[in-house]
Known about the structure:
The chain folds into two domains: 7-121, 2,3-Dihydroxybiphenyl 1,2-Dioxygenase, domain 1; 141-256, Roll (2,3-Dihydroxybiphenyl 1,2-Dioxygenase, domain 1), CATH 3.10.180. Helix content is 17%, strand content 43%. The protein has helices at 17-29, 78-87, 151-162, 214-223; strands spanning 7-14, 31-34, 43-47, 50-57, 68-74, 91-99, 103-109, 115-121, 141-147, 165-171, 177-183, 186-192, 204-210, 227-235, 239-245, 251-256. Strands 2-3-4-1-5-8-7-6 form an eight-stranded mixed β-sheet, with helices on one face.
Amino acid sequence: MPFHGLPCWFELSVADLEAAQRxxxxxxxxxxxxxxxxxLDYRLxxxxxxxxxxxxxxxxxxxxxxxxxMIYISVEDCDATAQLCTALGGKVxxxxxxxxxxxxxxxxxxxxxxxxxxxxxxxxxPPSPGGAWNQQAPGYxxxxxxxxxxxxxxxxxxRKLFGWRRNGQFPTxxxxxxxxxxxxxSRIGGALGMAAVPCGTPPHWLPYFSVPSLRAALGQASTTxxxxxxxxxxxxxxxxIATLQDPQGAHFALVARNR
Length: 259
C-alpha cells in the first residue's frame, strides 16, 4: 500500500477550542467547523476543500495530559501495526478502535517514550489518505520532527513500523546531528537528540505546518498570545523554520520558503 507510513492527520487537544480556532485560523489559513461526532465536541480545520487537522477538548484525554498536537500516520492494518509496535518494544496507549465513517485508529508509544497515532483509513473514491499532508502548498502539514535520547534507535524502530528510511544527516552544533528520513523516497522528517531541549522535556514528536511568510506568521502569533521558542532558522532546502507554543501550551512549528 503506497500510503502506509505517510502522515495523514494532525490533532490538537486544548482546554478552549474556541480560543484555539481564533489563534490557528488566521495564523495558518484554516477555516474551522464542528464535526458531527456523538458524545465529543470535535472541530475540523480545513484549507480550502481539504481537511487538515482536528481538535477536541483536553478533558477528553487521560488525566495529566498536557495541551498537545498529535501526529497520525496512515497504516494498512491498524491492529497489525499496534501488535508490531509492542513486539518492537513499544507500547499501545490506546487500543485500536473504530471512528465511524473515517477508519480505525490507535495511539502508540515508541520504546523511548515518544507518542504517535496511527490511522487505517476507510477506502475513499478517489483515494485521498494524505489530504492533510502537502509539502508544496501553505496551510498543510509538511514536516515531522522527533526529539528523543537516541535518534538512530528511534528511526530504526520507525523503519520497522512504517517503512521509513534514513536518508541524510546534518550537524546542528551543540544539539548534535539531525538525521532525516523519507517515505517512499520523499523526505518527510528528521530526528534529533535531547541536548537542545530544556531538562525534563520528554521525548516527543513535533508537527510542522507551512505558511507563505515566516516573519509575518511569527508576528501574527506573537500578537495573538503565541510564544516563539526558537527561530527563525534557515535550514537545508532553502527554507526557514521556527518552533512555537500556542497560548494554551501546545507546541508546534512553522516552515516557509520565504523568511
